[in-house]
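Honest question from a wet-lab person: if I give you the sequences of every part of a complex, can you actually get the arrangement of the whole thing, not just the pieces? Trying it with mine:
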Amino acid sequence: MIKERNEKLKIIPLGGCEEVGRNMTVFEYGKDILVLDLGIQFPEEDMPGINYVIPDTSYLRGKEKNIQGIVFSHGHMDHIGAAPLLINKLGNPPIVGRPFTIEMIKYRQEDYSRGTSKSLKTICIKDVNEKIHLGSFTLGFFQVDHAIIDAIGVIISTPAATVIHPGDWMIEHNPIGREKISYNHLANLPRPTVLMLESLGATNSKKPVTEKQMMENIKKLIREAPGRIIIATFSSQVERIKQIIEYGGQINKKVALDGFSLKMAVEIAKNLGYIKTKEGVITTTENISDYPDNRVIVMCTGAQGEENAALAKIIDGVHRFIRIKKSDTVVFSSSVIPGNERTVQRIRDKLYRQSDNVIHSEIMDVHASGHSNIKDIQDIIEQIKPNYYIPVYAYHYMLKESAKIARAAGVLKENIVVPDNGSIIEASPKGIRPLEKKLPINYVFVDGSGIGDIGEVVLNDRKKLAEEGMFVVVVVVDKKTGKVKGSPDIISRGFVYLRESKELLSETRKKLIGMINKTTQSNGPVNWPNMKEEIKNKLGDFLFSRTERRPIIIPVIIEV
Amino acid sequence: MIKERNEKLKIIPLGGCEEVGRNMTVFEYGKDILVLDLGIQFPEEDMPGINYVIPDTSYLRGKEKNIQGIVFSHGHMDHIGAAPLLINKLGNPPIVGRPFTIEMIKYRQEDYSRGTSKSLKTICIKDVNEKIHLGSFTLGFFQVDHAIIDAIGVIISTPAATVIHPGDWMIEHNPIGREKISYNHLANLPRPTVLMLESLGATNSKKPVTEKQMMENIKKLIREAPGRIIIATFSSQVERIKQIIEYGGQINKKVALDGFSLKMAVEIAKNLGYIKTKEGVITTTENISDYPDNRVIVMCTGAQGEENAALAKIIDGVHRFIRIKKSDTVVFSSSVIPGNERTVQRIRDKLYRQSDNVIHSEIMDVHASGHSNIKDIQDIIEQIKPNYYIPVYAYHYMLKESAKIARAAGVLKENIVVPDNGSIIEASPKGIRPLEKKLPINYVFVDGSGIGDIGEVVLNDRKKLAEEGMFVVVVVVDKKTGKVKGSPDIISRGFVYLRESKELLSETRKKLIGMINKTTQSNGPVNWPNMKEEIKNKLGDFLFSRTERRPIIIPVIIEV
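Yes, you can. This is the full assembly:
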């Protein structure tokens, strides 16, 4: 196919530009389509019962055969979590990523549906300098720092423009055992270049904790712990886990790993040769009682206070092998993910009751963030010197702040586009601009085995039920006499404590019988739908007058 | 009454030591009782529909006549919010506080029940050096810095010990128009002294923003705003509001106040003579269009993203007189209260879409916190040199960290007690110690007009309803034949979208009819309670197998 001369590159973020998570971007050149990331978003407070939210891919329906591939920048859930649900739906195109990322996707795929990971078509990037051709797209890669191994940046080259997308990123200013990453080489790519920059740090002016500082603090804690040391971190922090295992080996301590996802991540990393453990350093929680307390390191999941994670089990006294002792040192090598403030506070409170040595980021630098700050955003822009700038992968206000940083770093105002989910941005040597018309993007909720079947109606009912409860009245009406038979049944949950509300219930029954008998005794046929509306309204007002609460009222009328 | 020689002072925190809010402390000396603060706690994520939580005062039942008075440290809701609900219940004892605090309580009382504030017995502290005698207690006061005017610290003197309680506090290092507060004089009080210290800052190592820095930033923004400037802050920040009004007057700008609670707070402050406005500076939002944009300052509520507050109305385009213009400068002179992260992010996102000049604490120091940091806690302890130390008014882990700071500041380990709600701490010249037995303390939930009637059962139902929804099946059974008559009614909310689940519903009906007919057709009388349990279980499993969701199933069986 001969490309038109004026073909433009279309950049379409389907998710990740109005919320954090469910990251997904579509690139179109001619008919060819390339996808970057398939992430999930964890539910917000007003999405009760929802497991997670995935990108709305309806725009790609019917275009599956044009999808040349899906690139994954790294293996965090907000970048790969929707893969098992969407890869097949998108026509099972080749998936591209670094080894650890591909293995994580395979693992999630198996977890979702056993035996299906075999059918994935994978293109594994062995060497970061590889080039991959997919339709009209040429893919290149570059190393980035982020809180997971094998995170990469992606270069998407088309005749119209070159996109540079670091995925999630930070600048590690003092890395261990290697040079600080420079992005200067990206200034030499074919122009025009479009920098799509994850901008979670656009309002963060805090000085970053360096890997070196952090590891020195952790090593000191490990070395000087009077008893056992329990370190909770994210399971994907394989690099940190590796360093702790190695240090344990050096000073003759045993390291027990706990938590399903952490053990799995370490297993994958070992299989890939990323972690080479000295014989006998790693042990299990079952065996730690064989060693003196001050020779034991436990690394586990649950630093966010997750209910069923290893740390929660230990603290709640339900772990099979570990209880907290006063002499234990417990380290949260983690940040608090927004939305988890309360659960983290609760687990801290419990822990402080059991241990005298609890260490977290507010006490000491025992965690380095995986995201940049304002200064780093400025630096990377100045190094890459892009022609066009699209801030992505953050809340809208952060994208706007990121745009301000880009302007200060020299990008022209007309060359910056702040996108929404569903924006269609055209880029070519002539310029960059968003089309006026955006794609409609909906929440696609996953709840149990249902994908996208929960809509606003069900969600609003859930919220209402949670706030005020429900109140079902079941009335049996005699067809012949029109009179209520017996006493109406009342079923209520989440409204009042029924046993202590007998008077309220008996008044309600009286009101109900009165209302129905009055209507049925009048002339003409009864309009039951109207009757039900009336019951809802009048009973609602009555209950409100007594309780100042407005439960969902559901009248059931049975004629016999 | 002659006091026993060995009488001890009992200190009993009833709230505020395991959560933030619902602050209340009881002091007992002999039979005499003194209460400090009656606050509310705002509901947590797992308390759907709850308006707020108040302290559990069951311990005081029957002792009302011994309550000599209730002292209020300042007028924030977590210190006075439960007053209208509890003062009467506690036998309407005299209430003690500074003028603004007393007026705020009166206002809340009126709001709760019109005409009732007249019956409050108030002791208004006109001069901070006053002494008040209430039974065995002598009360003294001292000035503290906090985010509301008329905040005071309280000195409670008894023969057994002297309690020093600053209420909520911070150290303002660079105040405007006065000296920095010193607490050295509190080291000279009769010994032993017990310092009860609000410890929200016990893990905060950030350098505080000073009032001077903050006001300079705000003034610069006001001065240089190209158009209108809209400043959202807490309604209780009367001092800040006052300074902005005064500055507006100086540079010939008009100040429009908006938001019910803000206008009310300013009104009270004006009546008390705290705010003296120059003629013609204050205007209404209705009249701001009479002035050029760059002469208009709007001060309003809603900085936490509260749904019905002034700022939300303005942003959502439903305010009667104000819409956001691109040229408006909008300032959040506020912190993000824990739990409000999401609503604040959402209002920011909306605002950034409408204005190019949004300023908040992450961008510039436009807010000074009302709470201390680690350094300040250390300083105040070193100034007061208490014999005993009880950290209070924060989460447990913060209290523990505060205790560590106190030890580092020279307080002996055995003289520190970290309390829980319900702890009974005895203090005397011989020492301080918590009794082994604690008072049982329950959540007292306020929901609508119900106080304390919502318990764990109702709350758990609400959570379950929110997560999975409900599923009511109504079956009419013929008494004679035992057979199901007609088709069972199914009423469901929050579970699946019924219109799209016809197949699931018809299968459910079939299953249900089968189950009931099978049982009723067998020999012997039907055990309906057992039948219902069976329906719940089997239907539950069936629905789970189809949806992986577990709604609350409620079977209603009607025999006719």
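Two things worth pointing out. The longest strand of chain A covers residues 484-493. The mean pLDDT of chain A is 94.
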